[in-house]
């Protein structure tokens, strides 16, 4: 059986990403810059000649828009494609759509997890989830037990589907904090790492376990950017 591998991309840059708002379960479309970045990614993946047999994304508009561009550049629009709400971004509850500065520098530092003077990077994902539940007046934010289970179960279901069909590569589009959380669930020693728009995180799935290969790789986008810029100069 061929090894099962997930290439997990973060969606392209959106309107909310650009103006610094917490997106969560709210949604905004990719900007022109964001679309170009994903065209770069798709071209880079195509140039790498990776044989994708399956595609999956969250059910958020920004990930579906990203996947549409990737599949267009891969020249494989008929690849089997599913959408799974389990690999959505974190829900920020009543703070969803608010400015990042208000959330991460204003509200969250007043919660119990931050009382020790630790920074955002030093607070664990379970503690961060507890902080969101603590400040969410709408009671929409997910407790860590629910949040972590739905993220892991979502990616595992995708991997198991690919494995059941003989293994191979899947292109998956998800969200920054969701991808970071998934990496931490695979390896609790992982520190929080920036997952840039259009970056690729690769994991393999064998014997019921995930193994991390790369996190936040920008090389595919850079390769695609070089190709686009060369074409533009020549034309």
TrEMBL record:
Binding-site residues, substrate: 10-17, 62
PANTHER family found in the cross-reference section: BROAD-SPECIFICITY PHOSPHATASE YOR283W-RELATED (PTHR48100), PHOSPHOGLYCERATE MUTASE 2 PARALOG (PTHR48100:SF9)
Single GO MF descriptor: isomerase activity
Stretch forming the signal peptide: none
Enzyme Commission no: 5.4.2.-
Enzyme superclass (EC): isomerase
Gene Ontology cellular-component terms listed: cytoplasm
Protein name stated in the entry: Phosphoglycerate mutase family protein
Keyword Hydrolase carried by entry: no
Pfam families, per database record: His_Phos_1
Family matches, as CDD domains: HP_PGM_like (cd07067)
Top-rank taxon: Bacteria
Residues annotated as catalytic: 11 (tele-phosphohistidine intermediate), 89 (proton donor/acceptor)
Record keywords, A-Z: Isomerase
The keyword Isomerase is annotated on this UniProt entry: yes
